[in-house]
Every structure is written in structure tokens, then in C-alpha cells.
Amino acid sequence: MKVTNACGSATDAVKVTVETTLPIVDLGIDKSICPDIDFILDAGNLGASYFWSNGDITRTLNVNLAVKDTFWVDV
To answer: Which of 4, 32, 42, 57 has the fewest beta carbons closer than 10 A?
Structure first.
């Protein structure tokens, strides 16, 4: 790290340790969704970040399909 101000500059090394625990994702069994029936997909893991295949970033995804489709989510 280097810090500079009106008095000059100073350089030092800083060690940063980040501890992370991977979320446990349990999607359960595969489900068939009937056309024109609302269905909610829930990625669980409250407080995590989400990115669904359609670009949504919420924990749940409301689905109503007219054609066969596949969805995925990164948690």
C-alpha cells in the first residue's frame, strides 16, 4: 500500500485474509411446471447474492412458462 499526502508518501505491505464459507444449495428434486401456472423458484441462502439465467438478481424467481425452458442460478 502506498499513501501520499502533502507531507510526503509512505509505503507498507498489508496482508488481507478473507474467509468465506460457500453456501449450501439444495434445490430438491426436479420439478415439472405446467404451462400457464405460476411457480416460484427459490434459491434459498438468505443474504447471499443471486444471478438467475434471465438476469434477475433476487432470491426468488416467478416463472410462468408457455414453452419448455431451463433456469439456473448462481448463488
So the answer is: 32
